[in-house]
């Protein structure tokens, strides 16, 4: 009888790992502590719940590394991408999803799978026997984090991940805000108007920055440090780096024209993106924050168009734990000191929903192959998935290891000249090469697709 694969954590990585392994014919048990044990950020007991942004970022599989990762996961029958496509929302060239139906669908499909069992329980110690994947994500429970730290002999690394506020659409003043994607990007009118824009003149921007810098912030517990991942910096931390930082980041005013004042160029622009299919909720793009709740409402209502904003969810801050994967994991994502345990998802030091799910996909397939007695290598580093796993399991510098999004800088270079002017051709060369490599890697598998 085929051994079971046990997965700790039912987030993006754990859900995808379970799906992949079960479809290869391996029985899977998902151990998920929610809803019995809650976290600061989660609201439900659903698997694959989205707790930060509702965006999977760029869906361009020819010019963008994360779009390429989307393509690879779709080609591998990925549950996360199938479900994201089913519940997608307009977002210009990005892939955004309706978060609650997304998580509910992932949960329903896994619970209905004949080879998947979901146990609502917390695992607090490292298992000594059996085949396991730890995919507990950024909110690994304290007991399990302690067990991991005790096993590795190192202190767990941590940074703080901030959540952006969500606003009720009917409280936004449309006499000041307007719908437009940057540079009118998108193939349909819905895509070209996927973002809601709130303009600021210089005086308003300066007052906003002053308020942001002086606002009350959440306090850290004794002994905690604030080592943020640069791709998810709180807005107040960005403002502390310089008064113009936000104007060159989430508040950049380029590629947008205010129809209310077409002859006036905004000094800065705040963008909001639809957060659900009904269009009743919008999140403020790039506005993760650790301001206290009272300060948030006061400061954010300084944004033109949001003076009467009603908040469905205020921003927050939570601890994010990850291991020093380059020193702890082998090339197949196994813990060197306990090869029966693999790690997947954000706890390995990848950042983002898509990257986490991709590491779950890979860990699930590698674990299932081992259980079935097959020899399967990790995907080539020329692929997006392969570039990520190569980075975290040895390509990164262990002494300075930090969470990483997928990007072309992780790929072996292509031999093209021309500098920046030839960038589109270079990116296309990366993606063309990756797709061939990924298809070749997938040919190793004889995936048994269960009828769903």
Automatic annotation (TrEMBL):
Signal peptide: none annotated. FAD binds at residues 9-14. GO terms for biological process: tRNA methylation; tRNA wobble uridine modification. The keyword ATP-binding does not apply. One of its GO terms (cellular component) is cytosol. It is an enzyme of class 2 (transferase). GO terms for molecular function: flavin adenine dinucleotide binding; tRNA (uracil(54)-C5)-methyltransferase activity, 5,10-methylenetetrahydrofolate-dependent. Keywords: Cytoplasm, FAD, Flavoprotein, Methyltransferase, NAD, NADP, Transferase, tRNA processing. Its cofactor is FAD. Its EC number is 2.1.1.74. It is found in: Cytoplasm. It comes from the Bacteria. Residues 5-374 form the MnmG N-terminal domain. It catalyses: uridine(54) in tRNA + (6R)-5,10-methylene-5,6,7,8-tetrahydrofolate + NADH + H(+) = 5-methyluridine(54) in tRNA + (6S)-5,6,7,8-tetrahydrofolate + NAD(+); uridine(54) in tRNA + (6R)-5,10-methylene-5,6,7,8-tetrahydrofolate + NADPH + H(+) = 5-methyluridine(54) in tRNA + (6S)-5,6,7,8-tetrahydrofolate + NADP(+). InterPro entries: FAD/NAD-bd_sf, MnmG-rel, MnmG_N, TrmFO. It holds the Pfam family GIDA. Belongs to the MnmG family. TrmFO subfamily. NCBIfam families: gid_trmFO (TIGR00137), PRK05335.1 (NF003739). Catalyzes the folate-dependent formation of 5-methyl-uridine at position 54 (M-5-U54) in all tRNAs. This is Methylenetetrahydrofolate--tRNA-(uracil-5-)-methyltransferase TrmFO. It comes from Meridianimarinicoccus aquatilis.
């Amino acid at each position: 009888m085929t051994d079971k694969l046990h997965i700790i954590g039912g987030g993006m990585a754990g859900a995808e790992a379970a799906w992949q392994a079960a479809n290869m014919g391996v029985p899977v048990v998902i151990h998920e502590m929610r809803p019995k044990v809650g976290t600061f950020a989660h609201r439900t007991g659903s698997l694959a719940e989205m707790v930060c942004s509702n965006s999977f970022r760029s869906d361009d599989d020819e010019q963008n590394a994360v779009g390429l990762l989307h393509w690879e996961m779709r080609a591998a029958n990925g549950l996360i991408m199938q479900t994201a496509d089913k519940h997608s929302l307009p977002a210009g060239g990005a892939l955004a999803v309706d978060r609650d139906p997304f998580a509910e669908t992932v949960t329903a499909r896994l619970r209905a799978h004949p080879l998947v069992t979901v146990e609502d329980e917390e695992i607090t110690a490292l298992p000594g026997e059996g085949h396991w994947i730890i995919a507990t994500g950024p909110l690994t429970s304290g007991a399990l984090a302690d067990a991991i730290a005790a096993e590795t002999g190192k202190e767990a690394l941590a940074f703080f991940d901030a959540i952006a506020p969500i606003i009720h659409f009917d409280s936004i003043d449309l006499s000041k805000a307007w719908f437009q994607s940057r540079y009118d990007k998108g193939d349909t009118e819905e895509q070209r108007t996927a973002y809601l824009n709130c303009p600021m003149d210089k005086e308003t921007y300066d007052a906003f920055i002053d308020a942001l810098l002086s606002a009350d912030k959440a306090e850290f517990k004794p002994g905690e440090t604030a080592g943020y991942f640069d791709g998810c910096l709180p807005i107040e931390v960005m403002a502390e780096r310089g008064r113009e930082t936000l104007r060159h980041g989430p508040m950049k005013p380029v590629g947008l024209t205010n129809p209310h004042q077409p002859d006036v160029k905004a000094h800065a622009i705040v963008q909001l993106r639809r957060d659900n299919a009904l269009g009743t909720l919008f999140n403020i793009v790039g506005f993760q924050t650790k301001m206290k709740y009272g300060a948030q409402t006061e400061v954010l209502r300084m944004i033109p168009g949001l003076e009467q904003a009603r908040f469905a969810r205020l921003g927050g801050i939570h601890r994010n734990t990850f291991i020093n994967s380059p020193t702890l994991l082998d090339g197949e994502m196994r813990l060197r000191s306990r090869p029966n345990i693999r790690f997947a998802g954000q706890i390995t030091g990848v950042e983002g929903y898509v990257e986490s799910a991709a590491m779950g996909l890979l860990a699930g397939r590698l674990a299932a192959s081992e259980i079935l007695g097959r020899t399967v290598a990790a995907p080539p580093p020329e692929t997006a998935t392969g570039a990520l796993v190569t980075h975290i399991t040895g390509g990164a510098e262990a002494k300075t290891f930090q969470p990483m999004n997928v990007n072309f800088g992780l790929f072996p270079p292509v031999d093209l000249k021309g500098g920046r002017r030839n960038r589109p051709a270079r990116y296309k060369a990366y993606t063309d090469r990756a797709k061939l490599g990924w298809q070749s890697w997938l040919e190793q598998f004889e995936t048994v697709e269960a009828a769903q």
